[in-house]
Design a protein that fits this description.
469 residues; alpha+beta; Immunoglobulin-like; five-stranded antiparallel β-sheet; 9 helices; 19% strand; globular; disordered N terminus
Length: 469
């Protein structure tokens, strides 16, 4: 599987054309990114009935501004995630009072509809807008740009044009906040900065001595220069002390656009006595619905487990890659149990079950040699049509046969079957469980976790002899 960010970018570029925005100027367009629509063509009156009842299936604004705490001239908007939404349309509106009695107030767009690929956006209000209040509402969309929710209720946003404002990115990734939030391979997400051509993200071994500055920190140990507002870390980050990450926007000449974001701490301590570690590829690493990151914890099955764990998975792994990094990535954490889900990328890309089973057996033996109890998960089905639609990637014609062979191996050892309820009438992964046909969405991750939670008391009570089968 190609790098996930590249895949998502190609999908979203295609969506831009498909939704009639081919003339739009692309600023950012992958996780947490958005497309700036073309200049406003013709204002249209929008009437919103005050008598409308709230719908259970609509986004809800959860970042609110008031006259006492108004937004800046680059307001950040945030709202709740909608199941089934790959992206969101954001209408930015100005209210107009009626000229005569008996008429309704109406709204007109300030800019053309903005498209966000996460449940948030940073706006750059146009110069032509001189008001001190605007409104917005949001609608969730599927991969084809069709609505999957009602519009949110109108949210009123007072702004302070004269207030002090310095541009800095808004981080979205926050670690160490509960089950499933400790990753060996972190992913860093932030809201795109209007006008940014690229970004500079630095990893630090201590808090920066120059918070919100424009110069690199003396604590810098690594740096990335992503074009889009997301970075998958290519290195395992672990140790007894916190790391920090922060990011700044750059213009096309490489000059800073504002300052570095607030530094975000994270710690993945191998001496924290994790009894359980999870291991594998992107299904275990997290993320789904094309545009949601592993740091969107609703898309992490570990988030729903009844016990803590450390996530040692890495997106994009083949079964061989998972086998080869065992000593480097698993042994430092010395877990008692290792929950293993591996092979999906290899099998769907045409690598036969024999190779995957050989890799699985090697991982199993490595576990036993090091006093670790391996618990395999059955490999979930995929949906080739949805994979093609989402990633323009083909699936091996015999994938069902090969998956069956691997799952027969899994069932011959200590395992948990997570697949009941995942198959449609064709024996493929149900679309409502994974919009992109591969990465299970929250409902799918909850199915996984429920199966693990139910089986876990029995797993932990097995005698030593069970692991030698």
């Amino acid at each position: 599987m190609r790098n996930k960010s590249v895949l998502v970018l190609s999908v979203l570029l295609a969506l831009t054309v498909a939704t009639g925005m081919s003339g739009a100027r692309m600023r950012q367009s992958t996780h947490g990114r958005y497309v700036v629509a073309p200049p406003l063509e013709q204002a249209q009156k929008i009437y919103v009935s005050s008598a409308a009842q709230p719908s259970a299936n609509q986004p809800v604004a959860w970042l609110h501004y008031t006259e006492d705490e108004p937004a800046s001239i680059h307001p950040v908007l945030r709202w709740s995630r909608v199941d089934g939404a790959v992206m969101y349309d954001v209408q930015v509106l100005e209210r107009h009072e009626p000229d005569t009695a008996g008429q309704e107030a109406y709204y007109e767009p300030i800019v053309d509809t903005q498209r966000a690929y996460t449940n948030g956006i940073e706006l750059a209000l146009p110069d032509m807008f001189t008001g001190d209040v605007f409104y917005y509402r949001v609608c969730g969309l599927d991969l084809d740009g069709n609505p999957v929710s009602d519009y949110s209720d109108l949210e009123r946003v007072p702004i302070d044009r004269m207030g002090y404002f310095v541009e800095k990115p808004t981080p979205l990734s926050a670690y160490n906040e509960g089950n499933g939030t400790v990753l060996l391979y972190p992913v860093y997400d932030w809201l795109a900065v209007p006008g940014a051509a690229s970004y500079e993200l630095e990893i630090l071994d201590g808090p920066p001595e120059n918070p919100n500055g424009i110069s690199p920190s003396e604590h810098r140990i690594d740096v990335y220069h992503p074009q889009y507002a997301q970075q998958y870390d290519q290195k395992a980050r672990y140790g007894p002390h916190p790391f920090y990450w922060r990011v700044r926007a750059l213009d096309s000449a490489g000059n800073p656009v504002g300052v570095y974001s607030d530094a975000q701490p994270f710690v993945t301590n191998p001496d924290a006595d994790y009894e359980v570690a999870t291991y594998g590829d992107s299904i275990s690493h997290g993320g789904g619905s094309v545009s949601y990151s592993p740091t969107d914890w609703d898309f992490s099955y570990q988030h729903y487990l009844d016990f803590p764990s450390v996530n040692l998975a890495e997106s994009g792994n083949t079964s061989t890659m998972t086998r080869e990094r065992f000593e480097k990535d698993v042994l430092p954490f010395h877990p008692r149990y290792l929950i293993i889900l591996m092979g999906s990328n290899s099998l769907r890309n045409g690598e036969g079950a024999s190779i995957v089973m050989k890799d699985m057996e090697a991982v199993r033996q490595k576990c036993l040699e090091n006093g670790i109890r391996p618990v395999f998960l059955t490999v979930p089905p995929v949906n080739p049509a949805n994979i093609k639609k989402s990633f323009d990637s083909e699936t091996a014609d015999d994938w069902q046969f090969q998956f069956g062979r691997v799952n027969a191996y899994v069932r011959s050892h200590v395992h948990i079957d997570i697949t009941p309820g995942m198959y449609d009438e064709k024996g493929e992964l149900r679309t409502e469980l994974a919009l992109d046909g591969l990465h299970l969405d929250p409902a799918g991750k909850q199915l996984m976790a429920a199966a693990i939670n139910e089986a876990w008391p029995e797993i932990t009570s097995l005698p030593d002899s069970a692991w030698e089968e």
